[in-house]
Amino acid sequence: MWEYTDKVKEHFLKPRNVGEVENPDGVAEVGSMACGDALRLTFKLDENKRIKEAKFKTFGCASAIAAASAMTEMIKGLTVEEAEKITNQDIAAFLGGLPQEKMHCSVLGQQALEKAIAYYRGAPMEKKEGQIVCECFGVTDLEIEKAVRENNLTTVEDVTNYTKAGGGCGSCHEKIQEIIDRVRAEVREPVRPKLTNIQKIRMIEDVLEKEIRPSLKNDGGDVELIDVVGNRVLVATRGACAVCRASQQTLKGFVEFKLRELVTPELIVEEVKA
Amino acid sequence: MTTIYLDNNATTRVVPEVLEVMLTYFSELYGNPSSMHTFGGQVGIKIREAREQVAALLGASPDEIIFTSCGTESDNTAIRSALAAHPDRKHIVTSRVEHPAIKALCAHLAESGYRVTELPVDSEGRLNMEAFEQCLTPDTAIVSLMWANNETGVVFPVERAAEIAHNHGILFHTDAVQAVGKIPIDMRQNTIDMLSLSGHKLHAPKGIGVFYLRRGTRFSPFMIGGHQERERRGGTENTPSIIGLGKACELAARHMEEENSRVRQLRDKLENELLARIPRARVNGDRVNRLPNTTNISFEFVEGEAILLMLDRYGICASSGSACTSGSLQPSHVLRAMGVPFTMAHGSIRFSLSIENTEADVDLVIETLPGIIAQLREMSPFWQTEGQSCAASS
Known about the structure:
heterodimer, A: alpha+beta, Sufe protein. Chain: A, Arc Repressor Mutant, subunit A, GMP Synthetase, Chain A, domain 3, 3 domains, three-stranded antiparallel beta sheet, three-stranded mixed beta sheet, 11 helices, 19% strand, elongated, B: alpha/beta, seven-stranded mixed beta sheet, four-stranded antiparallel beta sheet, 45% helix, 14% strand, globular, Nitrogen fixation protein NifU (chain A)
C-alpha cells in the first residue's frame, strides 16, 4: 500500500479542474495508455495574459490524478513566464510529497505544462525531441537528463522512479547510467568557487607537476609552464614531445583535458616556442 | 466501517475454530514435540493428528506430508530436490504465469547454468499442451506447473501434464497454493510427485506450509538441521500453526461443497452483474476451468490503483494487476502472458471470495463499482474520444 499524504488523497478524491477548456490557448498531451498514465492539459489566458482557466484529464493512479489536479491549481492566475518556472519538485511539494516510486507522476504534470506552454508559443504538437533511450516507455535522453539535473538523481533506480525509464525490460540501464554520469560531471563544476589568479596559477602548477608531467616523462616527453594569461595556459614542449608530430593532440587531449578537469573548465592550453 | 474482504487469494482470515485449537500451544502446552517427557510428547501426538488431517484433505498418506514455513519454501524444496536428484540434467520446464515463488527461483537458477522453458498460455490463460510435450527433453529435470492461477483462477490440467512428464521420465511438481481447499484434490487419483500448499490461503495462519512428497520419490532436503519431519526438513516445528493448519484442512474438506456451490454463485453474480452494469468490461481468463472463488475483470480506460483506492473508501478489499499497484512499472506478468492489451491490463481488478463472504458483500460491490468506474472514466482522456466512438460503433 502506498503511503499518500492527506493532500494527495484529497486531490485524488476531489480533483480540481477536471475537464477541458473551450478554445484553449495551450494544449498538451503527455504519457500514453500503455505506460499506465496519460495527461491532457488545456489552459486559457485572460486579457492580462494570465492563466484564467486550466483543466485536465488523467488516466492513471491516485497520485497521477492528484498531481494533475495540483498543477492546474498552481498555475491559475500566473503568467506563462511564471508558470513555466514550476518544476516537478514544486508539484510534489504542493502535495506534501509523493512516494519515491510515484515521482514520475509529478514529472508528467510538469511535462504537460511545459508542452502546453510551447503550444501556446506556437510550437506544433510535435514528437518528442531527443533520442529514445527506454524503448519500453518511450523515454528520451533529453527527458532523462532533465530529470537527473533538476532532481539531483544519482542512480538508475532514481531515474526509473522519476521518469519510468528503465522500468521495463531493463536493457537501457547502462545508457541511463551513462547519462547520469555525464550530468553529474557537469553539475559538479558550478559548485567550484571562483579562483583568484594566484590560486589558479598555483593549481595549474600543481596539476602539471603531479598529474601531467610524470605521465609525459614516462614516454620520454615533458612540458614546461611558461606563463598564464587569463585562461590561456602557455606551455613549451620538451623532450620527445618537442619533436613528436602528435604533440598537439597530447596538449589538447591530455594536458588541457586534465587541467580543465582538475582546475577550471575554461582553460585553454597553447603551445609557445621557448 | 465494516471490512468487505474480497481478497482471499492474497490471504484469508484465521477462522475462530482454527484460532481456538491453536491457542493452547503457545504458553500452556509449549513443550518441544521431540522431547522425551510427556509434556513435550503430547504435542507430538497433536502434530501427528494434524498431519493426518492434511493428508485426508489431499487424499495422501501422512508420511507424504512435510510441514514447511510457507508455499515459497515448499516450491524451493521441490525444484532444488529434483535438480539434486538428477545432477546431470540442466533443463527446467515451467509456465509464464507462475507465482514469483517459482518464476523468480527459475530465473535465479537460469543464472547458474540451468535452461528454463517458460511455456506460453493462450488469451484465456490456458496452457498449450502440445507445446508442453514438445519441449520435454532427456535433459529435463523437472516440470513445475501451478494447479490454479492466483490472479485469474484459471486451472491447469496438471494431472494430465504429470502423466505426460512421467512418460518422458521427468519429475512433476505443482504449486497448488491457490487450489487446495477450493477444488477437490485427490493424490490417489493422480501421479503428481510433489505439491506445495500454503496455510494462510485456507484460513490457517501465515507462516505455515506443506510440501507433499509422493512416497518413493527421490528427495534431498532444502532445510538441513535436526531430525524433524523425518530428517526431510530441519527446524523445530511451528506447533500452534501446524495444529491450526490441521484444523483448517478438516474445515476445508467440510466446506468444499459450499465453496463450489454458494461461493461460486456469489462470484458468478458479482461477475455477471458488473459486466451487465459497466460497459467495456471483460473477464480475464478461462471462465470454464476456473476456481470457484476468483474473478479478474478489466475496465477499459481506467487505472486499477485508482479503482482500488475508491473501493477502499467503502471498506472493500480487492487487488489489481495494474503496474501502479505492483511497485514495478509493468502490469501483471500473468495478464501480459495472456496478451491482455495494456489498456485493459492497467484497469484489471481481482475479486477473490471465501466461504466467509455473504450476498450483502457482493451486492455492495455491485452497487458501488459502476459509479466509481464512471467517475474515473469521466476523468480519463481516452474515454471521451475512444470510449464514445467505440461505444457508438459497436
